[in-house]
Amino acid sequence: MRSPVASGSRRFQLILLKPSHYDDDGYVIRWWRAMIPSNSLAALFGIAADCAEREVLGPGVGIDIKVIDETNTRVHIPELLALLRQHGNFGMVALVGVQSNQYPRALDIARPFRAAGIPVSMGGFHVSGCLSMLDGKAVELDACREMGISMFAGEAEGRLDKVLQDAAYGELEPVYNFMNDLPGIGGTPVPFLPKKNVEHTLGLSSSFDAGRGCPYQCSFCTIINVQGRKSRFRSTDDIEKLVRMNWAQGIHKFFITDDNFARNKDWEAIFDRLIELKERHGIPLGLMIQVDTLCHKIPHFIEKAKRAGVTRVFIGLENVNPDNLTAAKKNQNKITEYRKMLLAWKAQGIMTLAGYILGFPSDTPETIRRDIKIIQHELPLDVIEFFVLTPLPGSEDHQTLWRKGIPMDADLNTYDVEHVCTAHEKMSRQEWENIYHEAWSLYYSPEHVKTLLRRAVASGLPLASLVKVLVSFATTVPLEKVHPLQSGLLRLKHPSERRPGLPQQHPLVFWPQFVWETVAKHVALAGTILRMSATAFLIKRNPASKNYMDQALTPVDDSEEEKLDLFTKTAGGTAAVTHVRKIAQLTHANH
């Protein structure tokens, strides 16, 4: 048994670093204020802080934890190396929550630390997904082995102690693989980040996971193969604890990252506890959750979500063509329920955001344009986030293509669900990329934005909040060339952050060009803000706006629904209506 690390003035330096990835010009995507908080960082900080408190490196041996989210904070590698040298290189760098598109950047960050002899470990969806679904060497994992980076597959609850101890003794193992032994998360250290880190996000928001795992089988999804199909949950006491810890530092907005909170068996108990914290203890909670398309069938779910502080809900709509949903094994999505579900959220004045994937087998540029028109006209959705169907390492789709030897893009940086990574049967690569970019301008056309604002006034949705989101989603792709979920406020760049192998611009060239681009983009952005704000102001002032009605807001009439384009323009839609009708007849006959 190893003896404890010598105590005294030595303090172990733990650097938790969440990497970003490179844009199309090769520069790190970084913002003054980023949109999405990193739950991986929050979870790891909570676990690491618990390790420090328990003195897992021995009595009197402290652990200093430094948190860096590269989407909103520059990684100053020389400064970090100097910090480690001050402590005799007694520490480690943990690359946290690394997704496939972040893997190249993570390797580039790790390289100088490994050259200096610093222990480096890497975890996240790329490592875990590849070790779960492939042969252990596939998709560039050997790059970690060659550089001496320790790979961590699985989740860190109950496992970080050993990793820290091994790093302290210079004995990090090449691989820690816990994919077949996922831990329970109830009663474990809760996700938490200090306010100084949370301040780098828009709206001063943090995140937490109330549960992990998903029982569904969507072929494009990595969650089911990384977090498992058996759901695991935090207790209501855990949730209250993390809310109170955050409220003590003035943070009350959260993104609950569960892939489907509606399938949390304790959703009602959690909502009840949050309602109590909000209504009795005065914590002004603001929540965003992710749910499936059948959550409205759960009694009281949407009503309690509203009382608990939910202001935005993300729905995995994915597509309006049942044939595409079947191909992706997403049979739990019933298009016959879409309007009922969305109207139920509308009735509570909660903003709806939906993910919509482009590139399913039946898709063509023409069908995508048609489906966007159907959504605009018939579904009361507020915001759509478009994604390119991507064979992400760790998904069944990727495993199938990999086993068949079908070509996929060799550059992992493009696996960000906004670049085309493999061939499509009905679209060329260029057609697929073009329709992805066109989809944003089609949905967020000035005319449809007016419609969305009218619907918001009629349904009691906070207009200012919707305008902020619409501005972001209407402008980010054309102006910043990145997905809105990768966006933030004020894009930051540095000449030293360009991808290795690409030419490094001279500062006298880089900085004037960067300033000019920034000014030009913000002039265009200001114009959009002014136009959209003026439109919203005029709509709100119009007394008739409160009585606005269109096809999307029309209450569901089952006898009329089957006439909608949603159900008549695709063979799958017609079949779905026929199936529902048969079920209704059989149910009626049995009664």
From TrEMBL:
**Keyword check for Protease:** no
SMART domains hit by this protein:
Elp3
UniProt keywords (A-Z) are: Iron, Iron-sulfur, Metal-binding, Methyltransferase, S-adenosyl-L-methionine, Transferase
Cofactors (names) = [4Fe-4S] cluster
CDD domains linked to this entry = Radical_SAM (cd01335)
Give the range the annotation lists for the signal sequence.
none
Q: Which GO terms describe its molecular function?
A: 4 iron, 4 sulfur cluster binding; catalytic activity; metal ion binding
Which is a Gene Ontology cellular component entry for this protein? cytosol
Domain of life per record = Bacteria
Radical SAM core domain residues are: 196-430
Q: Does the keyword Protease apply?
A: no
PANTHER family in the record: ANAEROBIC MAGNESIUM-PROTOPORPHYRIN IX MONOMETHYL ESTER CYCLASE-RELATED, BLL1977 PROTEIN
Q: What is this protein called?
A: Radical SAM domain-containing protein
